[in-house]
Specification:
- The protein is of the alpha+beta class.
- The chain has one domain: Small protein B (Small Protein B, Chain: A, Beta Barrel), CATH 2.40.280.
- Helices cover 31% and strands 33% of the residues.
- The protein contains 5 helices and 9 strands; from the N terminus they run αβαβαβββββαββα.
- It has a 7-stranded antiparallel beta sheet.
- Strand 8 and strand 9 form a beta hairpin.
- The longest helix is centred in the C-terminal third of the chain and has 21 residues.
- This is SsrA-binding protein.
- It comes from Persicobacter psychrovividus.
- Belongs to the SmpB family.
- InterPro entries: SmpB, SsrA-bd_prot, SsrA-bd_prot_CS.
């Protein structure tokens, strides 16, 4: 008799797409996990891992948060009803969280960037967004130096 798959086993794709550029360019102040409104062909492309977060950023429009320039490739087996690859996508957050971050956005130099896109155990797509401040050139150099020192210590360890 064939083994039945659990619902959790069906969605355990381990999709975890990170925005490494954002960690280098920005200093993370606060993080939140938000749901995202997607079309059917978009979630299928995410399950294939066809997402790029490199140029993505978030903006407020009429009290709601949207992510722009998040590239989700068109679904490979899609038809003429396939989605646009870089359309605006709405993020789902509580009203209090939205209001708090919108007030913080008034400060100079703060922005909201997506750090990673992942699937939950139930198969839902979530985006981890961060309130961040841009780094100066010397901050970026110190980040690279710390990374090199850490790598050298790991080599010595083994």
């Amino acid at each position: 008799m064939a083994k039945q798959k659990n619902k959790k086993d069906r969605f355990s794709n381990n999709i975890n797409i990170k925005n490494r550029k954002a960690r280098y360019e920005y200093e993370v102040i606060d993080k939140l996990s938000a749901g995202i409104v997607l079309k059917g062909s978009e979630i299928k492309s995410i399950r294939e891992g066809q997402v790029t977060l490199g140029d993505a950023f978030c903006v407020f429009q009429k009290g709601e948060l949207f992510v722009r320039h998040m590239h989700i490739s068109p679904y490979s087996h899609g038809n003429s009803e396939n989605h646009q690859d870089t359309r605006e996508r709405k993020l789902l957050l509580n009203k209090t969280e939205l209001q708090r971050w919108e007030q913080k956005m008034d400060e100079k130099g703060l922005t909201i960037v997506p750090l990673r896109l992942y699937l939950t155990g139930k198969g839902l797509a979530k985006v981890e967004v961060a309130l961040a401040r841009g780094k100066k050139l010397f901050d970026k150099r110190s980040t690279i130096k710390d990374k090199d020192v850490k790598r050298d210590l790991e080599r010595v360890k083994y």
